[in-house]
Amino acid sequence: MKRAILFDTETTGLDPLTGDRVIEIAALELVGDLPTGRHYHVLIDPERDIPEEASRVHGYTRAHLIGQKKFHEVAEAFLAFIGDDVLIAHNAPFDFGFINAEFARLDMPSLHPARMLDTLDMARTRFPGLPNSLDSLCRRFGIDLSERTTHNALLDCRLLAQVYVELMGGRQRGFELARDEGGLSAVSYALSQARVPRPIVPSAEALEAHAAFVAKLKEPVWLMQ
Predict the structure, then answer these.
(1) Is residue 202 part of a domain?
(2) pLDDT tens-digit profile of 122-169?
């Protein structure tokens, strides 16, 4: 089954081109679109101040990050964890922009945009015109938000992993038997293809009954052009 990496960042602000930096990276390994339990998580010293408005979002102040590793000290470990796999994020251009700005400071190659899978785009396609923030999607899918008091990157990844499964069609859209050398070892859900739509086509009898019902109504909307 295919491997993908779901990741999130927290930053000192909104624009890496004006000097904002990454302060936290979290990433979860997905196989068959489900978390395996393997993850990568690191706090980073941004080597600059953290504005108060940013601290209100993620909860980190400059004092929390003094003594943490610098980005150049974690870059190789992050790249080793993500490999060459698809990278999933909510509002992915934001996270790609910050990570690539950090790589640019080190004269390292950028993450290629072809690797990007944006769950915000997926949600907007599925729910056009509705709020599609991570919080909104969690509420829509009945995912517990009780621990989300700030935008912690690792917690956000775990919530997004549940949202991603729902956006892909849900946990029970298919399954396969996983095998090891000794034979059958587990049942694992395989989410490698989208759920096939099943159109509901009314019978002739149902259409006739509906027409009889509509005929009894005054100015029925079904007959208005």
Answers:
(1) no
(2) 999 999 999 999 999 999 999 999 887 767 899 999 999 999 999 998
Provide the percentage of residues in the chain whose pLDDT is more than 90: 70
- Does a structural domain hold residue 130? yes
pLDDT in tens, 182-192: 433 333 433 34
- Whether 50 maps to a domain, the answer reads yes
Q: Cβ atoms within 10 A of the Cβ of 38, count?
A: 13
Query: The tokens of 46 are what?
Result: 């941004």
**Active site (annotated) includes residue 151:** yes
Print the domain residue range for 38: 3-167
CB 8 within 8 A of CB 160: yes
DSSP symbols for 32-67:
TTEEEEEEEEEEB--SS---HHHHHHH---HHHHTT
CATH code of the domain covering residue 150: 3.30.420.10
pLDDT of residue 15: 96
- Catalytic residue, from 58, 90, 151, 210: name it: 151
Burial of 180: CB neighbours in 10 Å, binned 0-12, 13-18, 19+ = exposed
Number of folded domains in the chain?
1
User: Is the model's pLDDT at 105 over the cut of 80?
Assistant: yes
In sequence order, what are the beta bridge partners of 189?
A: 175
